[in-house]
Structures are given as C-alpha cells and as structure tokens.
What we know:
Layout: H1 2-27, H2 33-55, H3 64-88, H4 94-101, H5 104-115, H6 123-140, H7 153-174, H8 181-202, H9 215-243, H10 245-249, H11 251-267, H12 273-289, H13 291-298
Helix pairs in contact: 1-4, 1-9, 1-11, 2-3, 2-8, 2-9, 3-7, 3-8, 4-7, 4-11, 5-7, 6-12
Pfam family, one: EamA
Membrane topology: Multi-pass membrane protein
Main location: membrane
Amino acid sequence: MSSTRDGGLFLLLSFLWGTSFMAIKLGLEFMPPVLFAAVRYDVTAVLLLGYVAATTGEWRPRSRADWLTVLVGATLIIALYNALLFIGQQGVTSGVAAILIAMNPILATGFSRVLLPQERLGGIETVGLLLGFLGVGLVAFPESAGPLAADFIAPAFVLLAAACVALGSVLVQRVDSDIGTEGMVAWSTALGALLLHAMSAGLPSESVGDVAVTPAAILTVVYLAVFASAVGYVVYFDLLDRLGAIEINLVSYAVPVFAALSGWVVLDESLDVAAIAGFLVILTGFLLLKQATIRERIG
C-alpha cells in the first residue's frame, strides 16, 4: 500500500512540475517574464509560509546560518533560477525547457565535486558528466521556437537556470543550519519573490503596464502558484522524507514527459528526434554519475 501511495505521489509531482513548463509558456503571452515569476512566488510564499507555520516546528530562521541558507535559496534556487527560466522559455518549447532543467542533478554532482575536492569523480562518473553535456548539445542546438532562439541564446538561459538551482542546492547542503527543509523553502520563496520584483523593476524591457489581465493569465498564475509550487512542494517534502534524495532526483526525468505532452496538447508544440535522443543521453549520464549509490540502494 505504501509503495502504491509513493508511486502515485511520484506521478502527481511529475505531472505538476511537468505541466508547469506548459503553463509558463502560456502565461508569457500575457506578462513580462521576470514579473510573471515574481507574481507566481508572491502567492506561493503566502501559501507555503502558512503551511509550514501550521505543520512544522523548526520553520523560523533563528541563527545567522539559518538566514544564510535562506539567502542562498532565495537568490539561486528561486530568483535567478526562475528569472533565467522564464526568460529562456520565450524561445524554447515546454519539453525542451524541461529536458535542459533535467541537467540539474548532473550539474549538482559536478558542483559538489568542485566545492569538495576530496570527492573526486571516478572514470565512470566523468563519462556520465560528459554525457550530460553531450545530451544538452543534442537538445539545444536544433531548437528554434521563437524570437529569442537565435543560435544558443534561449537554451543557454534555461541551462543557466539549471546551473543556478544545482549550485544553490549544493551550497544549501554545505551550510550548517538548523532550519528544516520546509522552512528554508518557504522563506526562500518569500525573499525570492522580493528579489524577482527588484529584478523586474530594474529591467527596462519590463513594465506593469505590459500585463494583460485576462482569465487565461489569472489561470496560469493560480495553477503555477497553488498547484505546481505550493501543492508540488508539499508532495516533494513528503516523498523526500519517505524515499530519499536519489529517488526524488528521478522526478527530473519524468517531468519532461509531462512537459512535452502538455505542450503538445495545449500549445501544439512538437519535440524533435534530436531532443528525445538528448534526453536519453542526459538520463544515461545521470545513471552513470549515481551508479555507486544506486547499486548500494539495490543491494
């Protein structure tokens, strides 16, 4: 019964996070990208802070280390990640964006090895890292889906977003703080929303006057803030406690399936053969990078 429940939650999380790429793409028709991300996390922050206040004990930042953890999360995992992702998605399809973000676990492993020199990559792990970047090349270079997609610009923004969240995840783990994961995410979301608003205000290309308040625009914000973010994080917290980090990382490789399908159904997007091949190469790279840990779990 427990495995069935976990499997159902895994699929639900994959669906929520996968369809979020389609919702972002849809919402970009009505709002400037960084302002769009800021409004999304305004709503999410209120919901998550209310949730953690009601359900967890160690949710308030109390020490300098706690606030450092929140600052890292807000800057890299929320603000920079979402700003770069939303800007990049102007020029790539939902499926391609999700595949590029699936580099996150591979990049996180690479950052971890750089920041901790004692954790060297072995031969197999090095091949896995290189395969990840080869997969990115297969996905990114054939893509041309909008005005920002000249050459490698739009995919590069999305890949930089993946790098930000990967680096942020590694740095958060290195800070010796007492705040729980739920509290860190909730406060990072609140501070990250403020940073996104500041970034949007500083961009000459963005203005509140460019927002088109339509039923579709409201629906995308509500879906992203309430379901993809707030509900998605609650499911993520539950699965993280029950399954562990390695199994949760596999969500990154189920998400592109739902992103591509929802993009095809709602936005009439397509995914070419090179992108599918690139996704499989990235997945293979992840499995090689984590092969020792996976063998331990299976054994």
